[in-house]
Amino acid sequence: MTSTRERQRAAARARLEKEMAERSAKARKRRQTQAIVSAGVALVLVVAGTVWLAVSLGGDDDKPDTTAAAPGASECAFNALPTDQRPPQIKDVGLPSNEQSGTGVQTMTIDTNLGPITAKVDRSLVPCTAGSFTYLAEKNFFDNTKCHRLVTEGIKVLQCGDPSATGNGWRDTDGQGGPSYRMPEENLPTDKRPPYPEGVIAMANSGQPGSTGSQFFIVYGDSPLDPAYTVLGTITGGLDIVKDVAKAGDDGAFAQQAGGGHPKKEVVIKDLAMSNPQG
Predict the structure, then answer these.
(1) CA 271 → CA 108, 136, 224, 233, 263, distances in Å?
(2) For residue range 130-169, what is the model confidence (pLDDT) as tens digits?
């Protein structure tokens, strides 16, 4: 049988081996921690060096903007059209700021030859579209333009906002104009039935995502349009003007394409203004 002394020696060896293994594990963990910290410090130094280099090489006007985004602001994507893809109907007035307010309610006032049409625009729902509209209005983008399309069958809309639809008579290119940029859609009524009820004002697009420009349409009767168009706001006055234009009918110029035609009762936007956000 194994003697008591031999058992004691075996137990002592086992304790010593366990202690040595624990010390080795701790040393290994300490080395790994030091390596990670060293790598982290090196990364911080590289980034700091890059920032220092950028500031050093730039002039006073090139200092990075450290101003924080304003509370309630939204980052918007206004995508400039390539210059070789801009037809003559495009009106270039530059680009709005990428930072737009997402708070407050604005009043849109469309002063037409038939009387004023007003709408309420909630910037919390459409910060980028409202910002674009405000920018274009300040540039007199919509002044002296005609609402070029009326649809009396089905979707019941009056479409406006083409800066090239001006002057006497109509052109084959009416409806092809807009600003020199496009933006993504907002506030799509995917959960509404109908998506576009009477009194809604919404943005037209080409049918492709991110193709919203300046053209908009006023819905004068519940419309079954697919919910693919930004709902900009709600008409608060002058809807009777649009209904009277609809009663006069259209000339069917777009009947074989998108539907409808030029309104027989001409609507000219003399001025379009957006009030400062309230609330």
Answers:
(1) 11, 11, 30, 18, 19
(2) 999 999 999 999 999 999 999 998 899 999 999 999 999 9
